[in-house]
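Sequence only, no structure available. Ideas?
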Amino acid sequence: MASRAWTAAAAVVLTGTVGACGTVQERRADVRSAAAAFEEALDEGAYDRMCGALAPGTLEEVEQSAGVPCARALREESLPAGGAVRGTDVYGNQARAVLVRDTLFLSRFGDGWKIVAAGCRPRPERPYQCLVKGG
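Reply:
I predicted one. Tokens follow.
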């Protein structure tokens, strides 16, 4: 009897956890949307919107490294246009969005998915090299 109660309790906990996080498809769609919004802001030169899409640690690193406010730092960084989102990978609260000419890394925060790194290029057998990244 205790075994059945434990199984039922575990099912409720797991259902609540999955429901709170969304399905894999929902999380991928949210990541795709966040990546597309960042890319749209880049295309429009809306650097304030781009800064708003950055994870807190990334925003702080951008400003500290450049010694100027985020919007100015991103303008001066001249991130290349990444193009359309081709695919997404979601691993819990971490994600990767592969664009035509860029790769973005994202993390999920209380207010949604935020960009942790942008302007990323793969390197054989080494970590990605990113123009914009958190510390």
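The two ends are 51 Å apart (CA to CA).
Hope that gets you unstuck.
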